[in-house]
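Dear U.,

Please find below the material for section 3 of the report. The protein was modelled together with magnesium ion; I have listed the sequence and SMILES used, followed by the predicted complex structure.
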Amino acid sequence: MDMPHRFFSFGRIAAITLNTLTELTRQKAFYVLLIFALLLIGSSIFMARLTFQQEFQILKDVSLGAMSIFTSLLAIVATARLIPKDVEDCTVYTILAKPVPRFEYVLGKLAGVLLLLAISTLVMSAMFLVVLYTREQAMLHQTLSQMSAAPREQVDDALRAVRSSALNINIFPGVAIIYLKACLLAALTLFVSMFATTNIFTIVVMVFIYFIGHLQAIAREYWLQEHSAGWMARLFLVLVALIFPDLQTFNLVDDIVAGAAIPLGLFAKTAGLGIFYTAIYGLLAAFVFSGKEL
Amino acid sequence: MIDAAVAVSGLTKVFPVPFHRQPIVAVRGLDLRVQAGEVYGLLGPNGSGKSTTLKIILGLVSPTRGHTEIFGHDSRLVESREAVGFLPENPYFYKYLTGEETLRFFGRLCGLSGARLKKRIDELLELVGLTNARDRRLGTYSKGMLQRIGLAQALINEPKLVLLDEPTAGVDPAGSREIRNLIVDLKRSGITVLLSSHLLAQVQEICDRVAILANGVLVREGQLAELIAIENQTEFVVANASSHLVEEIESLIGRSNAQLIERRRSTTTLERLFLDATKNHEARNK
Ligand SMILES: Nc1ncnc2c1ncn2[C@@H]1O[C@H](COP(=O)(O)OP(=O)(O)O)[C@@H](O)[C@H]1O
Ligand SMILES: [Mg+2]
């Protein structure tokens, strides 16, 4: 019976992760948020139709915007209660009385949220792609029937133009970045919740960070214009960037809406930043929790 | 030397109170040793530091001073909890899980899986009498049922030591009786039990040794039988004694140096009366 204790066990983390996913998906709030997002994406089918380029731009703009906001919101709302609720209800005692290291508990919880976000992102993307595909097919038909008299090459050109502005591969890196931004927010929320006594506190702080995070790039440029960039100033900016991650960096929707591909280098850099921030905040949360008096 | 199941030495726990200069001293210089195989009762009024002591032994709360060990492993190390089961006070588990899912979750945390885990879950549900409620969410369980699923959860990894914090508090007499019978069974199968309680009559019959805490200080400790024995008194319980026999015994006592202190009709306990009276009207949710 006596097995040597394993310092790190995927089995234990997976148990906590799946339990967290069960907890979150057995709450109504999740479905309300998700259905709301799906409705918003679906409704863009009925948007005003001007030219097909404009239609697809609006469609992508609305859908990706909805995905970005809803995954961010879900990340914050779902994570804020996660650990404080366990501590309040003393369920955490029963879990930690088992041979479960505290950092495994925190990482398992975080992984559960990331899994939930991944599922939501996939569901929303599926809806988005269906809408986009439906509109693309309709538009192709329309173009064909309008240009029935035109020469063959002209028709081909027109169809190609429709296709390239509708469903194309450029969308996927954009969706990946939206997901990573939500992961970052979830990990940061988990970290903030370690110091919070109420959920409202965590959510308010996160909304604050969300807005500062989006504005800080502008603020930084403005600030650097006004002040000379000495090392003190730079250090200050690095610290600010650690507490308030530059969320505007993750906003690559504009490129995609315009139909342009995200350059590979930019994608890799942004994705790397998202993973880096998520890991740092996750580890910080685990570190704080390990030393915390329950 | 064989390691004690639980060793507590010089344990002190101080909780600072925000905005107060005077902190709360929950436990003060406590020394305890629980030997393997015994049922040990940690007794004391509310707020005397029982739960705090158990939490420190489990490494859930860090001591201000002193040291605790489980089978020779420092409580601060995760491996000290390998062979331990814990039933917290007012157990509260995840309401959205069913009884079976709850046991599966805690089993996985202990490294169990597959057929072995499934078998263990079936055994434990049977043991605590929740087989019929296995697919119900805990949100619908009664207090007694929660206590029993909590006990099953504590036993999932076949521990050598179980810590039970107020296992019978808030449970009806029949439930409390079942839990006490279970504790006796645990002891018979060689499992060490450390329990806390303020319900003295209930633990009196199951504990081998007790420690009494008051305000975080150990005021009495020892073998229960020795602590409560009255050295110079003897009791008889006689059935079908004729009034003649009783008179003769009394006169025999009168002629000796002994004093008759009390003579009364035997009574059953209220508990036994209650259990008998309600047994035939059982409509308990099992
Ligand atoms: N987390 C805590 N913070 C502050 N005080 C606490 C905390 N936990 C327990 N106490 C105090 O410590 C004392 C002992 O509590 P506890 O161990 O729960 O007693 P018991 O289990 O014997 O009823 C009580 O006065 C209680 O208020
Ligand atoms: Mg208590």
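For the text of the report, you could mention the following: The mean pLDDT of chain B is 89.

Regards,
Y.
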